[in-house]
Amino acid sequence: MQKIWFSLIVLVSFLVPLGVVSAAPPTPAAADAQALLQTTRDDRILGKPDAPITIIEYASLTCPHCAHFQDDVLPEIKKQWIDTGKAKLVLRDFPLDEEALRAAMIARCAPPDRYYAFVDTFFGAQSKWVGAHDYREALARLARLGGMSKEEFDACLSNKGLEDSIVQSRFVASKQLDVNSTPTFFINGTKYTGAPTVQDFATNLQAAFAATAGQQTAAPSTMQTEPSATTPPPSTETTPTPAPAPSATHKPSSELTVPSTQAPHNVAAFLDAGHLPESTIWNRLQGWFQGLLGSHS
What we know:
alpha+beta, six-stranded mixed sheet, 6 strands
């Protein structure tokens, strides 16, 4: 019943902008779309709040392309752009299914300084909970690794206000910013869709950084660029070719070991579910999570 309920919400969020459904929750006027591209006190910011480049990512925690970005692209972008103070990242929830909604709620219930550690783990361990027979129990096990008690976990998933706010945020992004796929990025207001490579993303960040300094922008990347609600259409008629989509299946290595005090770039790289005992996998996850908590503190 819950999956049916969430599916109906998702359907309505796409039909309303098309005029097929007239009833809808109240949303900001179109003139307020620019405000949606500004950071708010509810956002979880990775990086310095005053960084000149703002990256807003709309993602679903069950989306394999989003996991690819988190595991394989973001670590290098973080090192080159976020850790150096040139850019900040804001992840906003755009759940595509009930599992993603529940995982988003759990991450939001974590202390703010642990939010991205929870997100990293949920993305990296997608194979352990997405599509699981009891995905809530799998999420509960992951949450316990991050220090969330069963009572806190249950209270979080019972928080109707939090649930409604995430669903409403998704609806507003769909209606006001025309977000209809994940991941979708806004880099200083310019919309990009598709599965980027590190080079693609860095090229677009360089263009945004040059624009803030009044310089000539860099050559466009292969990411799909779309005019945002606050950005005029580009003058060129050329349609960029989207970057190749990553495989939804990670290829882990059973040879990689990770110290519990240091978070690796890719949790999937050492979760070899086909060759390792379940207890070993969860022990490695615990080491991964503890390392993340240290790196994000």
